[in-house]
Amino acid sequence: MRAGMSGFALGVVALQQLPSLPGGPWLPAALLALPLLALRAPAVRLVAGLALGLGWATLHAHHGLAHRLPLALEGQDLILTGSVADLSEPRGHSTRFVFAPDQARTPNGEPVDARLPRRIRLSAYGLATPPAAGERWRLTVRLRPPAGALNDGGFDYERWLHQNRFDATGYVRAEPAPQRLTEGRGLHALREQIAGAIRERVGQGGAATLLPALAVADRSGMTEAQWSVLGATGTGHLLAISGLHIGLVAGFGFVVGGGVWRCLPALARRSPARMTGAAFALLLAAGYAALAGFTLPTQRALIMLGVALGALMLRRRPTVSHGLLVALTAVLILDPLAPLGPGFWLSFGAVAIIFLLAAHRRADRSGWWVGLRLHALISLALLPVIGWWFDELPLISAPANMLAIPVVAFLVVPPLLLGVPLLALLPPLSEALLVFSLGVLEGLMQGLAWLAEYGQWGDPAGVRQGLWVAAAGALLLLLPPGWFGRWLGLPLLALPVAAGPQPDAASAPSQLAVLDAGRGLISVLVVADRVLVYGSGARVGRGATAAERTLVPWLEVRGLRPDYLIPGGRGSAWTGGLEALRARYPQAHPVTTCEAGGALPPGVRLRPVAGGCALETTLGQARVRLTPSERPHHNGAPPMAVLVAPLTHLQQLEAGGHSPRYRIGYPVRREEATLGNARATAHLGHNPAVLGTVLVRPGAEGLRLECWLRDQGRYFHRPWPPGQGSTDTGEGAPSRWANPLSSRSCEPGP
After folding, report:
1. What is the CATH number of domain 71-185?
2. I need a labelling partner for 468 at 20 to 30 A (CA). Which of 26, 139, 236, 564 fits?
């Protein structure tokens, strides 16, 4: 059945890469492949498994998308009744929480004629008693479908929402006042009580915020500085309860359960101690997974552990590849969306590497050497996977994990988990255990902070270009001992970091990028071997800015650095990220007034307009004009107009963010612009808040218009918008503008 299971896994993974979901007769046809698994031909089984994997993942995806909030309900007041389905996250003056509704009505009391979202990510502002885990509430909310910024290099929020089964996001209305219907009860309420009790014993500052994360997966108190240190050293996985933690608890249960059973001869004669230890290990692991809220990583770890312990209890000895495929198939049946996250690839990759290295283990090596070598090779071999997902190669992660993993596994987690059940039984002993874990964590974080200062992640552009070189290096390291060239893998792994391309605007093609910055306004113009940033976006909370989340990653994956920072307009939508950009790129020249435009490259001019400065230049044979538009937005704030004559008129909304209501329903108005002797007519045609980043480049067939959603979007991203916008020339326009678009237009296809 290896071929069938391999095909099933390939089918599930392949489905997650599609821009749209198959439908029609595909699902019944996939079921017809089930009898083919009984045939002996591996090729037939592989194809049958592939069809079943595609069919199962398609069915699951259709079911999930059917629960997404209908566009007709976006922005409308709804009265929801339901429960808080996870730990709440205090965020200063607001609280973020997960809400699972079971009833929805309009303010008039009429039931909502639509499928309810399964999980909603809500924010509540200014509530005296914010919602807590396990409580039932009646709330008046305003919702919108899942949406986020779509830019190269940035965090794909829409993918994350889909993977975590969030069918809507929104906020709680202050009026009418929210009503709490019942007190907190159930598993999540217990987790929140444990987290609160831990904070009472050890405080809420410094490393103390990490203890609730390791005990009950409550990471709400962690600071940006802590996440930065963990990210820079590649040790963030230690704070996400998953395979390492579940395996540690299971190992403890196996040793203790088997040892106690051996001390009872009457029972040991009836059942082998190994089987009892396996059952006890699975029980303790399930209990720890429950404390973590049965998150998807813990479910995945439990399945993998269950396959291994099940084989032990049934006295089976499957091959390593067969056991790994069984676990992989079971995980993908339970969660076909698992391949959308890096945890799936890192966890199965680590297990596969462990088994592969165990097969090559030399008997003359002592235990400490085997463990040291195992830690180092796992960390190094997984670097290409990390580079694929995060555009980073943290070479410092190998020594950091060799330090952190044994410390967390043996000195932090055991006393912490022993102290949790003693919180109510023996408070003094519990507090002593928690304080011990806290002291170890404080020392560990200091060491990781020191390592983070020397952690070089490399240029993201170099990482992307050299990823296959790093992958070849990882494969060489995994060769059996004695193979020629095995240790050449180390320099190959480091090559993308050491030889990554330096930022160079001279090698970048001329282009205009209007980024999908949500509530911010950001464009990048590469012209005359210079990089100009027009607009710096808005602030997005917790000290972060849209520029840091969208512009910086976009520049880094291209190996670019800005030469000029031009606010463009006035107000927070234009200047919110200017200070952060100046700190990150001190070499960039800030152009804060229209009169300072004389310092810009030749051919680039700034002109005073209402609301700020308009930027004018040429892109190939086209004229480009970026300006804060005089046309008011729905809330009176000025949007940004981008006119590429005579190509199209790009409109980026200042407020409303990625709201489909404002994206699609925004009124279309034709505008005329006279640029030199050419007269062109264009209108609201391509909105970055709809299509992700919109990129305009000169090409052999005219201007080339590309958009992120069309080129890289997948089925779980925002729907492809209805036909909006066109490009036509006005009377008297030169004939060469009759068809300015190349074949790669962002216009919706037929």
Report:
1. 2.40.50
2. 236
Kindly write down the DSSP assignment for every residue of 688-748, as one continuous string.
HHHHSSEEEEEETTEEEEEEHHHHH--TTSSPPPPP---EEEPTT--GGGSS-B-S---S-
Contact indicator for 132, 192 with CB cutoff of 8 Å: yes
- Return the axis-axis angle of helices 2-15 and 42-66, rounded to nearest 10°: 30
CA-based end-to-end distance of the chain = 42
What HEC string does 656-672 produce?
A: CCCCHHHHHHCCCCCEE
Q: What is the pLDDT of residue 683?
A: 31
Peptide bond into 176 cis (omega under 30): yes
Helices (H) and strands (E) in the chain, counts: 29, 25
What are 302's two structure tokens? 């439990």
DSSP 111: B
Domain ranges for the chain, please list them. Answer: 2-66, 71-185, 237-317, 506-737
* Radius of gyration, alpha carbons of the chain: 28
Backbone φ and ψ of 181, nearest 5°:
-95, -40
Q: What is the DSSP annotation of 669-705?
A: --EEEEETTEEEEE-EEE-HHHHSSEEEEEETTEEEE
Question: Which residue stretches of the chain have pLDDT < 70?
Answer: 24, 359-371, 454-465, 496-507, 519-520, 541-542, 596-598, 629-689, 701-702, 720-750
Record the tokens describing residue 303, joined without a space: 């399945």
Q: For residue 427, what are the contacts with CB-CB under 8 A and spacing of at least 6?
A: none
**Structure token digits, residue 511:** 């282009």
For residue 597, how many C-alpha atoms fall within 13 Å in the half-sphere facing its CB?
20
What pLDDT is attached to residue 556?
86
Query: Alpha-carbon distance 387 to 432, whole Å?
Result: 41
pLDDT tens profile 411-467? 999 999 999 999 988 999 999 999 999 999 999 999 999 888 765 555 555 566 677
Rounded Cα–Cα distance for residues 95 and 132 (Å):
9
DSSP letter at 354? Answer: H
State how far the Cα of 82 lies from the Cα of 321, in Å rounded to an integer.
44
Angle between helices 320-334 and 42-66 (to 10 degrees): 30
Half-sphere exposure of 388 (CA within 13 A, CB side): 15
- Which of 165, 157, 171 lies closest to 65 in space, CA to CA? 165
Give the three-state DSSP class for 83.
strand
- In the prediction, which pLDDT does 682 show? 31
What whole-number distance in Å separates Cα of residue 694 and Cα of residue 706?
A: 6
The sign of the dihedral angle between the CA atoms of 217, 222, 224, 230 is negative
